[in-house]
Amino acid sequence: MKNNILFSLFVLLICFASCKRVEDPELSGPSYAPLDIGKYIIYDVTNLAHDAFAERTDTTYFQIRETIESDFIDNSGNTVYKILVETSEESGSNWIFVRYATLQLDDYSYHKVEDDIRRIKLSFPLKESKSWDANQMNTLASQKAKITNLDQSYSISKDLVFSNTLTIDLGNEIDPFFQNVESEVYAAGIGLIERKLIDVETQPGKYKDGNEYIQTYQQSNW
Question: Which secondary-structure segment (H or E) carries 58?
Answer without folding.
Answer: strand 56-73
